[in-house]
Specification:
By secondary structure, the chain is an alpha+beta fold. The chain has one domain: Nuclear Transport Factor 2, Chain: A (Roll), CATH 3.10.450. The chain has a four-stranded antiparallel beta sheet. Strand 1 and strand 2 form a beta hairpin.
Length: about 80
């Protein structure tokens, strides 16, 4: 869970390395799904939103390692804005 700037965001990261039935994709080892739920507090009103993002990877890590890696990428993106 992340808090800041009047918002609370919770992310759930899921991975799968079972690629049976997937089309051929060179180097593909892991499928990743990130579900985000966000609450933003503005002028006494709570706005809620949900988002699901999908990633593919050519390497294998634990769910915790992927979550940290993805969070680090978002940190870089947020610093650019």
């Amino acid at each position: 869970m992340d808090k800041g700037h009047g918002r609370i965001e919770t992310r759930t990261v899921s991975i799968s390395q079972n690629l049976a039935g997937m089309p051929e994709f060179p180097g593909l080892q892991t499928l990743i799904r990130v579900q985000s739920q966000r609450q933003v507090h503005r002028a006494g009103v709570i706005e809620r939103s949900q988002e699901t993002r999908y990633y593919i990877a050519s390497f294998s890590e634990t769910v915790q390692a992927f979550a940290q890696r993805l969070r680090g990428d978002w940190g870089v993106e947020n610093k650019v804005h």
